[in-house]
């Protein structure tokens, strides 16, 4: 039996940040992870360059059953604090788009930075240590792993969500929450591509790899203006990943394929300048040609010159291209999702310390909690913020 002050389950973004903070306070900390390497999700994130935060991060960028929950931790450790840490370690980074910050070199830089922080703070990281069970006792918590038993005063659950099972995702965090009587919201894959019904899949198969800037809207009116990407299985790209967090099975999404154009005005201009040209050719100047051809083959566009279009046809075109309705068959699920929606109810936790109100000494941080950020570095920022917050109290 090994005695330590703090056990952190999970050497991911949230767990490593929390461990370093607690270590700097003089706490003796051990991080347990079943993987061979720490920070495995960080390493694959952002296409290997880790979109580590977003300069615009604010509580409005998070889905949570208690929308106020993240306010406290984001204000106490913000994106600017993390950027300051990155700069202090001399990491090179760049702004890509929409406030997203990426490493110039590789996501490994972020992992190395966190490991350096943990090293300076005297944190011990035990890899290949799967947590099998947890029990409360007089001294705090008893943690049984495949390697060893640990006794700790504070137990931090930073075991992440269910995405990417190949990278060691397990439901242990939800199980521990349930064991101590904490409510856990049902989980589902989010920031995930949509699969299409067979007829749409066949119809759009030839478009795999084609990307279209669009604005996409969910049933509840949430909207994102980003790119849509056709894939062999359905539709993806940042627009689709973003809206997937707001989509529920059976619903449609509405896609404005010409978000920067008013089609009726454009048709009027085409009529004045190139009235004899086919609508198909005109549209191919503002949309990918292959996509236009498929809309034609599906009888969604009239086979006419622009100056032959009737008012009714123009209204229909307007609806088709400004509010194209797609009903996904489902999502690709946890296998390819970036995050897990749902999780440990934040009402069960202190927003200041992340300690469970019903279980003193037990903390939940990062993705295991019911907090899901938009695509764009917001999820890591929540990991840094929640990890930092808990690290001051464990
Ligand atoms: P995380 O899942 O990182 O860590 C949990 C750890 O717990 C794992 O290492 C696991 O092995 C361990 N564990 C689980 N069960 C255990 C057990 N029983 N015993 C021991 N250990 C156990 N976000 C973002 O902001 N910017 C980005 O660029 C990206 N990109 C991205 C790409 C891809 C492909 C994915 C899948 C996800 C992203 N994300 C992202 C999301 C981001 O990766 C995610 O929000 C964080 O990694 C969550 O960090 P956590 O520390 O909460 O859990």
From TrEMBL:
Coiled coil: none
SUPFAM superfamilies reported for this sequence: FAD/NAD(P)-binding domain (SSF51905), HI0933 insert domain-like (SSF160996)
Family matches, as InterPro entries: BaiN-like, BaiN-like_dom_sf, FAD/NAD-bd_sf, RsdA/BaiN/AoA(So)-like_dom, RsdA/BaiN/AoA(So)_Rossmann
Domain RsdA/BaiN/AoA(So)-like Rossmann fold-like span(s) in chain numbering: 5-392
Domain RsdA/BaiN/AoA(So)-like insert: 189-339
Protein name (database record): NAD(P)/FAD-dependent oxidoreductase
Pfam families named in the record: HI0933_like, HI0933_like_1st
NCBIfam families: aminoacetone oxidase family FAD-binding enzyme
Alphabetic keyword roster: FAD, Flavoprotein
Domain of life: Bacteria
Cofactor: FAD
């Amino acid at each position: 039996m090994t005695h330590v002050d703090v056990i952190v389950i999970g050497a991911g973004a949230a767990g490593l940040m929390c461990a370093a903070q607690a270590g700097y306070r003089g706490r003796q900390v051990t991080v347990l992870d079943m993987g061979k390497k720490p920070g495995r999700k960080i390493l694959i994130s952002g296409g290997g360059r880790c979109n580590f935060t977003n300069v615009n991060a604010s509580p409005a960028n998070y889905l949570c059953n208690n929308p106020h929950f993240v306010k406290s931790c984001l204000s106490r450790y913000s994106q600017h604090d993390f950027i300051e840490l990155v700069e202090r370690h001399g990491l090179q980074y760049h702004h890509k788009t929409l406030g997203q910050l990426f490493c110039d070199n590789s996501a490994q830089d972020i992992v190395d930075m966190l490991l350096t922080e943990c090293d300076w703070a005297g944190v011990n990281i035990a890899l290949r240590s799967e947590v099998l069970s947890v029990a409360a006792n007089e001294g705090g918590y008893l943690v049984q792993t495949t390697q060893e038993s640990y006794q700790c005063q504070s137990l931090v659950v930073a075991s992440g969500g269910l995405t990417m099972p190949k990278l060691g995702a397990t439901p242990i965090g939800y199980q521990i929450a349930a064991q101590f009587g904490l409510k856990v919201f049902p989980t589902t894959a989010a920031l995930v591509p949509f699969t299409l019904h067979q007829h749409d899949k066949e119809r759009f198969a030839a478009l795999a790899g084609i990307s279209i800037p669009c604005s996409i809207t969910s049933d509840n009116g949430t909207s994102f203006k980003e790119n849509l990407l056709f894939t062999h299985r359905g539709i993806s790209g940042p627009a689709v990943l973003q809206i997937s967090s707001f989509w529920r099975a059976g619903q449609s999404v509405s896609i404005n394929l010409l978000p920067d154009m008013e089609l009726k005005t454009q048709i009027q201009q085409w009529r004045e300048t190139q009235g004899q040209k086919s609508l198909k050719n005109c549209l191919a100047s503002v949309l990918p040609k292959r996509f236009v051809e498929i809309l034609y083959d599906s009888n969604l566009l009239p086979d006419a010159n622009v100056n032959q279009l009737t008012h009714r046809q123009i209204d229909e075109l307007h609806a088709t291209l400004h509010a194209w309705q797609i009903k996904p068959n489902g999502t690709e699920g946890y296998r390819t999702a970036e995050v897990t929606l749902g999780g440990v109810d934040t009402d069960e936790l202190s927003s200041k310390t992340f300690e469970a109100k019903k279980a003193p000494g037990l903390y939940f941080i990062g993705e295991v909690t019911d907090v899901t950020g938009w695509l764009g570095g917001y999820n890591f920022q929540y990991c840094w913020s929640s990890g930092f917050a808990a690290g001051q109290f464990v």
